[in-house]
Amino acid sequence: MKFHNTVLFCLYFIQNCFVSFASSRTTGLVLDCGAVHTTAVPIHDGYILNKAVAQTPLGGEFVLSQAKQLLDELNVELVPYYQVKSKESVKQNEPARFIKKDLNGITDSYKRFMTKELLLDFTTHVLQVYDTTYNEHEISVLPRIGFEFPNGFNTDFGEQRFKIPEALFNPAFLKGVHPNAMLDVVHLVTSSINMCDAELRSSFFSNIMVVGGNSLLIGFIDRLNYEFNHMNYKTKISAPPSAAERRFSSWIGGSILGSLGTFHQMWISKQEYEETGRVIVEKKCV
């Protein structure tokens, strides 16, 4: 418990309810497309229905790993910006001509972080979710998207840029993973809602709040709407308008909750925890 390791006088856990506070709603389903997992969390009157929380490992890290696998197959050398001292302009698909910086003392963790930032830049600008069910013939005639890597190498991407995010909606596109091993995002939402009481389900379908960095993929929200309409579900999907709000909705909601005049009635004081132990966490936060 945090009281044991840090100097805290009060504490409160509420998880994905922070997103509902940021959206000014107390009832709805939060689809949190996070880094490690994508999670569907039904919230009713400000309380999480824990029995109906559903999760899949198809998160941002998965998308980055699939992008890394694609670039490795294409023999694209991933050289982060900080390693490039100078570079020359080259034609498309020509080998990069650049000079690396002579750097010492760079930690492995920093190298991994900067490589991840490069992959994130690539996925943000190149990957796109197709707006309907994946159709390779239709996608093959769409414009290709070019991307220049920090070392100057540049190429364009066609159907590959749709295949990676398609796995979020159709696990059959997964590389090296059995498609039945995990739920796609649409079935994740429907499974979570169907585990709730029947009289609450319509309120969840009409209040789906989408947050998380993975939801920023181009076409993600449009594809969600298409899939639910195709399945004849009456849904209303909302998402914060800016990238920052979508990434940090939990923090924004936490700041709103913390500013309420009644918040002091909700938190756990150090004295309460010392008197009752972990039971107080389940009583106040679950």
Automatic annotation (TrEMBL):
InterPro entries: Actin, Actin_CS, ATPase_NBD. The keyword Signal applies. Residues 1-24 form the signal peptide. Keywords: Signal. It comes from the Eukaryota. The keyword Signal applies. It holds the Pfam family Actin. Belongs to the actin family. Actins are highly conserved proteins that are involved in various types of cell motility and are ubiquitously expressed in all eukaryotic cells. This is Actin-like.
